Amino acid sequence: MRHRHALLVSIAILTSPAMASPSTDFTALTDEYWAFVMRENPTFASQVGVRDHDDRLPDISLAAEDRRTAVAASYLKRLEAIADAGLSPTDRVNKEILRRSLSETIEANSFGQRMMLFSNRSGWHQELAGLADGLTFKTRADYDNYLKRLAAYPALNDEALTISTRALTENYVLPCQSLGGFEATISGVIPADPTRSRLYQPFAGQGPATVSAAEWSALQGRARSLIDGDLRRAYAKHLAWYSGSYKPKCATAIGASAMPHGKAWYAYKIRNQTTTRRSAEDIHSLGLSEVKRIRDEMAAVAKKAGFASREAMIADLRTNPKYYAKTPEELMQATARELKKIDGKMPGLFTVLPRLPYGIREIPAEIAPGTTTAYYNQGSPENGISGTYYVNTSKLDQRPLWEIPPLSVHEAVPGHHHQIALQQELAMPAWRRQGTFFTAFVEGWGLYSERLGIEMGLYDTPAKDMGRLSYEMWRATRLVVDTGMHAKGWSKARAVAFMTDNSALSAANIEAEVNRYIANPGQALAYKIGELKIRELRTRAERSLGKNFDLRRFHDAVLGQGAVPLDILDAQIDAWIVAERRRA
Questions:
Q1: Packing angle between helix 213-226 and helix 140-169, nearest 10 degrees?
Q2: SS3 category, 563
Q3: Which helix (H) or strand (E) holds 466?
Q4: pLDDT means over runs of 10, the chain (584 residues)
Q5: β-pairing, 387-391 with 358-362?
Q6: Bridge partners (DSSP) listed for residue 390
Q7: In this structure, are residues 527 and 383 in contact, taking their beta carbons and an 8 Å threshold?
């Protein structure tokens, strides 16, 4: 899943009289918290339907980060003074979630890596390029506010370059080996014709009925002038800085441990992304164990399909033309057909389905060659925007049709769209419903959803079944190569070779994925660790409840409290098992 914002867990310091009870004190505190988050993250606020800051971009300066961190520390102190005994069970969970988020925000700001504002496939330049996708455009004010944000971008770009230059001088630099083709993610945003830029998207075609023809023409002219003028110059400045200053000084070492305080930062990233305290060594060993188990299952599938070996079947899957679409449209049509098949299976797995639909789009051309094979962007019920499953239609000879089933259940339903759209409808405070994201839960659920494809009957050919196993192997190898590169001194070549040997992924996908792990340490560990926890909890529930186990109710219980850390999920499912026994 791809995320367009990083929610700042930061709070305003307000002096107020003592509240009547811990419960009312906690509610007031979290209301203040969410209001501050909205002010500090104006583009995210717009995307979740809070329209008070629609004309602003965020303050990304280090001074603002320090201010937010100081506020978070003060808020954490207030939070810890609230007695658990006066809170409901739900608010005790909410309190623990907020405590963790504040603590990790404070810790994150202590590392110099806070100055690393971009990765090999994302950054402030792409945030702006995709901004319109999460906004609504119905009134003249909507367009005016968007133009104000575009006009504010050159100043934000200057601030980002200043911070990134400081990061460069202090050796917080991305590795050279992960940055292939990064220039195109900058230069591709504004083509020669400014009306073909994603930045111009809201002004394409006819205007809304609320805007006169003359006003619409004037708005289009302002947009073209901004994009072709100040914004083109800002993007050119960014490209010149990257090509002339940053790229020549990119890091030769690929591991996080090579950066200042890198070992401590990687340990923090593991805790943050997995919501566990597992060490890099422990996770590496877990990965090797999972790789061995999945290899054996892959060998059995290959033998059943009539191949001499696992390797022989994988070679056929990678090279046989019948497994590859000839055009982008063919790939999109095959994806759409699979998704409708999956939609029809959903009531057999859940009693509650979200109201918000999802759509599919191609990944933008300027980032497609260097990014992953697909990703999901959440929608907005408040703004009337659906969730979107983005499909990579570049390098078609590297996008096999047999990967469509596991990819689609992960990114759309019952994976990311189902889980996130349900969370957006839960009867819980807005800061939990809209602002809580734990990678191990969200990505763990996405990977668990791939396994649900077995029960949906999606893997009905040996190629599709091997594709499913290859995707599970993909996440298992991540445990090995991420910790290998960032904690054990592995080279990129060794990581690529390990994934090539064990999975059926294409060379282009493996290259993009390893580059991603290099540039974003720790994130890739969350998938398998989260999935294994959900599978463990399902087995526990099945054994405990026996014939009274209801798979649909179990899934509802896993998703029914929104994204939570894995230890909280463990406790929630234990409580659900007790309740199910009483119900039976």
A1: 10
A2: coil
A3: helix 462-487
A4: 44 41 94 96 96 97 98 96 94 96 97 97 96 95 98 98 98 96 96 97 94 96 98 98 98 96 98 97 98 98 97 96 97 98 98 97 93 94 95 96 97 98 95 93 98 97 97 97 98 97 92 95 98 98 98 98 97 97 92
A5: parallel
A6: 361, 375
A7: no
Q: Is the dihedral of CA 367, 509, 494, 286 positive or negative?
A: positive
CA–CA separation, 505 vs 197, rounded Å? 32
For domain 1-110, give its CATH number from 3.30.70, 1.10.10, 1.20.58, 1.10.150.
1.20.58
Tell me what pLDDT residue 235 has: 98
The rounded distance, in Å, linking the Cα atoms of 466 and 452 is: 15
Q: In this predicted structure, what is the pLDDT of residue 20? A: 59
CA–CA dist 153, 155 (Å, integer): 5
Q: Which of 271, 256, 274 has the alpha carbon at shortest distance from 528?
A: 274
Q: Are 276 and 466 in contact (CB under 8 A)?
A: no
545: Cβ contacts below 8 Å, ≥ 6 apart: 577, 580, 581, 584
Which tokens in the block code for residue 474? 């993909």
245 C-beta neighbours (distance < 10 Å), count? 13
Find how far residue 13's CA is from the centre of its chain.
Answer: 30
Residue 1 in tokens: 């899943």
Domain ranges across the chain:
1-110, 117-173+180-249, 265-531
Tell me the HSE value of 408 on the side-chain side, using a 13 A CA sphere. 28
Three-state SS for 189-246 is CCCCCHHHCHHHHHHCCCCCCCCCHHHHHHHHHHHHHHHHHHHHHHHHHHHHHHHHHH
Residue 225 corresponds to which amino acid?
A: S
Query: Nearest-CA neighbor of 531 among 294, 318, 330?
Result: 294
Q: What are phi and psi of 389, to 5 degrees?
A: -100, 115
SS3 385: strand
Q: What are the CB-based long-range contacts (under 8 Å, 24+) for 294-303?
A: 294/469, 294/472, 294/473, 294/476, 294/502, 295/473, 295/502, 297/469, 298/466, 298/469, 298/470, 298/473, 301/462, 301/465, 301/466, 301/469, 302/462, 302/466
Tell me the whole-structure pTM to 2 decimals: 0.93
- Give the single-character DSSP code of 324: B
- Angle at 432 (CA atoms; ends 426, 433), nearest 5 degrees: 35
Q: How far apart are CA 43 and CA 435, in angstroms?
A: 13
